[in-house]
Amino acid sequence: MFNGPLFTEFRAMAGFAGRFLREGFRPRYEWLELANQCYAIGYQSLPLVGITSFIMGLVLTLRLRPTMVQFGATSWIPVMVGLTIIQELGPIITGLMVAGKVGSSIGAELGSMRVSEQIDAMEVSGTNPFKYLVVTRILAATLMVPILTLLADAIGLGACYLGINLQGVTSVALFTNNILGRLTFGEVLPAVGKTFFFGFAIGLIGCYKGYNADNGTEGVGAAANSAVVLASLMIFLLDLVAVGVSTAFGFI
Amino acid sequence: MSPALPPAPAAALPAPAPGAEVVLTVDNISKSFGDNHVLKDFSLTLHRGENVVVLGKSGSGKSVLIKCIIGLLTPDAGTIAVLGQPVATLGHAALDQLRAKVGFLFQSNALYDSMTVRENLLFPLRRHWLADHKGQEDKLVHEALDDVGLPQTIDQLPAELSGGQRKRIALARTLIVPPEIILYDEPTTGLDPVTAREIDQLIRHVQQKYHASALIISHDMNCVRLTSDRVILLAEGRSYAEGTYAELLASTDPIVHAFFE
Fold first, then answer.
1. Domain named ABC transporter: which ranges (chain B) (predicted)?
2. Is A170 helix (H, G, I), strand (E, B) or coil?
3. Cross-chain CB nearest to A116 (options B108, B123, B128)
4. Minimal CA separation from B250 to chain A, in Å
5. Which of A116, A158, A121, A137 is nearest to A41 (CA)?
6. What is the pTM (predicted TM-score) of this model?
7. Looking at residue B1, what is its pLDDT?
């Protein structure tokens, strides 16, 4: 049972993560490449994440309003949309968008470098390709996804405010008081905390698939594709785990 | 049958004198991938300033051999000594120092797609030499590009270059940290005959300018003829025949003859 391809893959990926932990925190540190990757993963993903978060916040508000009007609870719209975005939709949408954009890009880039011997060339040039290519990308994804999520939350809430004001009038102060007055630290912490794991999973899976690509260009395509699919699935699994842990520790 | 090849050009250097310094020793190495025994007790020596071509069929283990020499693969048995240092026992730092003295021209060129030609050339320079040559980086990049006749490509990306230009840039990257030994993996594969001859001439030019030794993996007989001081025929994982191009050309052995006819 534990020798099937799924477990073999899982063991290999766990070994890859172990190597990241062993090599990632020992010199030589690739600061410049880490900064480049933070720019590529964080800054260059912001337009995509921002647009999807804006649409998500606006649609959620507009769809929720008729129901809330029926119950005479329109004043609860900011709280309901705010909590939904901050606790679930913001992290999940950001994770999925980054997995789609960055996970596939890392898988394809490293896969292409592997099959065209660029990774070997790097090693011959006195560079540890694992540190230069893998450690920097995993760290950048781990650091950038939480920041992108916070920005996505803010953009989504802005869209919610816009949606409310399209069909009524609410001041910014009332809107923010309504949300912030309901939010506790214990509700925000797990929502932000899990995004570090989302970023780690996206970086790890993209790098693992790309770094171990073979079979030429077909292997590159397969690496990019499987990186997106597996990273997206992993985001939902990690979210499920996060809900379980939050419940167990009394955050929900 | 194709016509007999003309004799080697006069530009070829004489083979090193007996007793010349040995810079590379491969001693009875074996390498297998599962049931596929690629190398079986293969041995060779390379002298300073000498060009040795390892000739063999596709899949005969030629590329595996040079990847073992540079430490990208580890042989199952046998020893490899590069500039007197046993590759298998070196730590990361010592191996990196040794690799700074060995250039490797990859079959696929292995230029970094996301970097310009300048950045491709600066990469090994900064990695191997760090602060020592900071003020001279630009000068060294221009010198290396002049050596391969492509100074105008300095700000281009590899995707904007032709196959022959990419090969030359890859060679420039190999030369930018002056190597004592250069490993060429199929340097003319995939190139048109004219460009392939230009690469062959560059290999000779590099040998003369840097007095570097070269191990050239090839099955292009023109390349073998133009670049070799000595030829080793790799067959069934072993060193099947060895000699100058002219000696092997005159061989009546059917396996050797199959390559040279």
1. 24-261
2. coil
3. B108
4. 37
5. A137
6. 0.85
7. 35
